[in-house]
Amino acid sequence: MMKFEEKTIKRTEIFKGHIFDVVVDDVALPRGGEAKRELIFHKGAVCVLAVTPEDKLILVKQYRKAIEQTSYEIPAGKLEVGENADPKAAALRELEEETGYTAELELLYDFYTAIGFCNEKIKLYKATNLVKVENPRPMDEDETLELYQVSFDEAQDLVKSGDICDAKTLLALQYWALERQKR
């Protein structure tokens, strides 16, 4: 049986932040030899596929500094300190802060965003029975968002144009497409 595991020989912490930590591991390779692995350890995140009773997908448009452009995305956010024990509550918080809605949530998937160098795991929830909140929680102070409700075809056009370009939203759209085929 082939061995795959790389054993960590030494870990060097490069950066410790609020959202993620960066390390460099020296590893022993399964077939002999050594290598370096630059890794990001992320505290986790949540996202929400929210479709209105009118069959419109709720998206937020925001600027993403890492790619130096705006993106249309499903509501999402990182897990705050202490929220690992209740990610569903974090998803409800993000949904309310970013869209002004609350809902019943069902976990669809846990997925990793970039397993070659990062352990960020996102939990994707499906929102049902959306209700507009009378006095929603305020948006994060460092966020500038614009809210959109788009049809399935409009969402596909946003993918084609590159305006939807993040993995979490593409995965959510794939689920929505499969769900629509069942109707």
Automatic annotation (TrEMBL):
The keyword Hydrolase applies. Keywords: Hydrolase. GO terms for cellular component: cytosol. GO terms for molecular function: hydrolase activity. Residues 40-172 form the Nudix hydrolase domain. Its cofactor is Mg(2+). Signal peptide: none annotated. Gene3D superfamilies: Nucleoside Triphosphate Pyrophosphohydrolase. One of its GO terms (biological process) is nucleoside phosphate metabolic process. InterPro entries: Nudix_hydrolase (IPR020476), NUDIX_hydrolase-like_dom_sf (IPR015797), NUDIX_hydrolase_dom (IPR000086). PANTHER family: NUDIX HYDROLASE DOMAIN-CONTAINING PROTEIN, UDP/ADP-SUGAR PYROPHOSPHATASE. This is ADP-ribose pyrophosphatase. The lineage of its organism: Bacteria, Bacillati, Bacillota, Bacilli, Lactobacillales.
